[in-house]
Amino acid sequence: MPPPPRGLTPHPRRPADPGASAERLRSAGGPVLRFAPSPNGRLHLGHAYSALLNAQFAIRLGGLCRLRIEDIDPARSKPDFIDGIVSDLAWLGLSYPEPVRRQSRYMDAYRTALDGLVGRGLAYPCFCSRGQIRARIASAGEFPCDPDGVPLYPGTCRHESPVSVADRLARGDPHTWRLDMAAALRGAGSTLGYVAFDEAGERWIAADPGRWGDTVIARRDVPTSYHLAVVHDDAAEGITHVVRGRDLEAATDLHVLLQALLGLPTPRYHHHPLLHDAEGEKLSKSRGSQSLADLRQAGQTPGDIRARLGFA
Fold it and tell me: Can you give the residue ranges of the Glutamyl/glutaminyl-tRNA synthetase class Ib catalytic domain (predicted)?
C-alpha cells in the first residue's frame, strides 16, 4: 500500500472453503474489483486515493476494475455529479469497462431481493419515526449502540400483529424495512466471516453482524439501502475483491450476513486507511473538503495528485 499522503494522515485483522473461492475466481475469468462512488458531490483526495488503490490492486492481481455509480438516493444524486465523477477519473488517467452500472436502474432487482427476505420472515416493516425511536431509547436509559455509535433499534414494530401490519401497509403509512437480526442469524445457519487481503497475504475474519441489531435494509420509497444494494451488485458484477475505506469495515459483517441469506458469494475484502485534513477531520463531501475539481482549477496535475497520494 502506498505510504500516507503528505499533509494527510490515515484514519487510526481461514476461509470457509478456499477451494470454492478459487473456483469462483477461475469461473469469473479472473479477479474483478470496483470503485463505487455516490454522486452526491464532487470527488476529493480520499476518493482519488481509493480509486487509484483499486486500480493498483487490479494490476497486481492481474484482473480488472469496474466503475459503479451508487445513486440509490434520488434526493442527493445529481447528473452533474455523475458527469464530474467521470471527468475526474478520466483526468486521473483511469478508465473502466463499459457499461458502467448505475444502481438507480436496478430498483426492481433490489425489490425482488427484499421481497425474498420478507417472505422468509427475515425482515419486517417499521412504522416508528426517528423521534419515536429516540424517545423510547431515552426512556430506557443506557442503550447499546451499533458500531457507528447509533443506538440499536429497540424492536418496537417487530412484535406488531400481522393484521395491524397489513392495515398500515394498505393505508400507506410511512415505514422502513428492518432486518430481523435474530431470525437472520438463525437463517444464515453457519459461522460467518470473510477473507481479508493485503500485500502480506490473506487471513480469515470472523463476522459479528449481531452488533448491528435490526438495521434498516430498505425504505418505502426506495426498496433498498446501501447494504442490500451493494451485496446484490457485487454479486451481479462478479466482484471478487472489494477495496474500500476502513469506515466500512464493520459494515462488512452485515454484508456477509446478507450474502449468506441471499445465497450470494462473498468477495475478499481490503479496508484501506481514510485520509484526514490538516485539522484531523476525515475528508468528506458533506464537510466541503477540497475537491479534485478545485485542485485541478488551482493548477494541480494528475501527476501531482498521484505523487501526493503515493502513486508516483
Answer: 33-296
Q: Which three cell numbers stand for residue 236?
A: 451481479
H-helix segments, the chain:
18-27, 45-61, 79-91, 107-119, 130-139, 162-171, 181-188, 226-236, 251-262, 292-297, 302-308
pTM of the model: 0.88
Query: What is the C-alpha to C-alpha distance for residues 91 and 88, in angstroms, rounded to an integer?
Result: 5
Whole-angstrom distance, CA of residue 59 vs CA of residue 136: 51
Mean pLDDT, the chain, rounded, equals 89
Residue 108 makes CB contacts below 8 A (sequence gap 6+) with: none
Taking residues 288-298, what's their average pLDDT?
A: 90
Which of 65, 48, 90, 34 minimizes the C-alpha distance to 310? 48
Q: Look at phi and psi of residue 271 and say left if phi exceeds 0, alpha if psi is from -120 to 50, else beta.
A: beta
Q: Please check the confidence at residue 154 and state whether its pLDDT lies above 50.
A: yes
8, pLDDT greater than 90: no
Q: What CATH number does domain 18-308 carry, 3.40.640.10, 3.40.1190.20, 3.40.50.620, 3.40.50.720?
A: 3.40.50.620
In whole angstroms, give the CA distance from residue 41 to residue 74.
13
SS3 (DSSP) at 262: helix
Q: What pLDDT shows up at residue 24?
A: 52
CB 64 within 8 A of CB 32: yes
Q: State whether residue 73 is helix, strand or coil.
A: coil
Distance CA 32, CA 40 (A): 25
Contact residues for 50 (Cβ-Cβ < 8 A; gap 6+): 35, 243, 244, 245, 272
